[in-house]
Amino acid sequence: MAELLDELRRHDLTCAPHVLVRIIVQLGGDVPTIREMITRLDPPTRFGLRPLPAPLPMVGTIRAKYDSLVLDERDRDLLLAVSLCLGDELEPLLAFDGRIADELMLSAIGPHLSLHAGRVRFVDPLLDIWIRASADPAVEAAVNERLVEIFAARGDRVSADWHRSRAALHGVPEAASELIRIARELSEAGHSSRALQLAGEAAAHAVGVELDEARVVAGASSIAAGYATEAAAWLGPLFPDGAERYRLQGLSALVIAQAYLQGAVPAIDPDSFRPSTQDPDDWYSWTRAAAFAAVLCAERGDSRGMRRWLSALRDGCAKVGSERELRDPVVALSWLLAGEPDLEPVEGSGPLSGGMLRALHSAIAGDIDTGLRLIAVGDSGLGAEVDPFVAGFEYSPVVNAYRAIVEVLLLMWRGDVRIARERMLQAAMTLPVAMPFAGLGVVLLRRLDLAVLGRIGPFGGALTASLPAAARLDHLVDRAIEAHLAGAFEEASSFMKLWSDRGRPRPALNVDGLDELDPIGEDRGLAAAVVAPPEIREAQRLRARIAATTDGRWRVEREELLVATRALVSPFSRARVESMLGVRAVILNDLGAASEHLRTARRLFDVAGADAWANAVAHRLARVEEEAAGDDTARDSLTVCRLAWAPLLTSRELEVAMKVVAGSSNRRIGEELQLSVRTVEVHLGRVFTKLDVRNRVELTVLAHRTAQYL
Where is the HTH luxR-type domain (predicted)? Predict the structure, then answer.
């Protein structure tokens, strides 16, 4: 799977992991056919923005395998009937063919069918594609007509209407209503793809307001499955020409689809869609659309848009009387995602405004284990509740993706890096994990890949390439981490400086970056901008404090830092602090302390499963221990000192310090940087103070000492 994802990306045929899994299943794992099939799919389909075509198209490998198959008319009709049926029940197909099950198993097509427990399926799914693609349209219509009679006699109205509509050369409006009804039921039960199939067929035959309703069901089913482009295509024609009721019902799904595809919630006035009637159902649809828009704005850092939609939400909830069950949880979730989680927790219900919101509140309060238990209870199906926020879609793939992302985030906050990555990979193979929280799942997987592999893995790369063009994903921190773990410290520092120049963009729900090179303290906005458990914030505070520790304060501050560091429970958070203590000890020539901290960091990274971090620390530890044993090895001071000194100095001070270490005079430095000699002296004086040295000689000695161990 991983190798195939990489291969496809190299050939500019990127496939979202969950889409590739579906293709593998539908093609029985036949790799040559999978490769050829993917070349026939357009990018939105490969990225999971549209559903796979049903049936999948014919390709050369399938034709080569089955074009020589000889079937008599009866056997071919039966195989075609198996392919055309909505379900896999054996009994209707026996009625269609006239033979009993034992006779079928002994017939020429017996080897091609699997009959078990009253069910029937193709042994080789490739035959399903071939039989459909090679069927004469008139024969297919005749088989559908025969199936209409069989299912009607059995009282299965849905299947009868399905085959009636598939057999018709002209529209069959009378079949649409039943197909729409069942499509709604399937969608609410979490079977979004099958619901879309039925609603799409209903739309082909419906007219008038029934067509509007079919479009709404198809669009809502599409977005519930993660098919944003498909949802927009179904729902777009409702605006402005559809009936008001169905425009309002489709508004939520269209807002979600457009926000994902465009990278921002559409800039529309909520009042322009305010219902013109007093019908409570219309008002509830409008109110729920406002709820979705508010949360989506919060996910994307659009506080102004969030406030505007929250105001509409309050108006709507007052109108329909849903203040407690809808307004309060959505307001709490919106403000949490906007970076202000300290509001009084509210009691919502269902998978998102209930379990997920409570899990986040518990974790942010410091109780990550309770948060994970709340997610696990929801996944078990125990205590299933209606969620007014996502009513009718509690079991949909997108809602499940939101819950999976929160679980991975909490595991990462707890320091279980390897487990978090494994869970993320599992979710990526079955769910549209790129959609929730404005792409947070992609950020998480990339950081987890880096922590374990030291690079972006096949799944992370495929998800990144599958994002819509408008998605805003910052790559600078990832590239800095990759360079840092590979020992390319100057390159890592450069990426972090670029990231800082861009305003330090980061998700509202904290995903650790590389504050070893860009410490974020209280004066840099950590408290106001990032939602994280107390321990994550404490670890960030400790790293910022370590970066600022001078030689004169090291002995005193190290003991205080040790006490605080040992209180950290997360092995990953503590390991990063221990690693930074080790680096700082090296810079201050305290090799005994450096070895102690680096050994502890390596063990803790191993416990967390952060293999790449463990390897990077092991490399540093080896250099320290070599030096302690008398093995003197040289390193490029200019390259390494940028890593150690960047958090302490301004960019201009750092440039002056580097040139001094390289041997340049103050006059030469002034000429190269276009500064006066006096300005160079001022910068250099500040460098001496911050690095606790007295002159140029001590600065150069410090630089070489630092380079020996980093």
Answer: 642-707
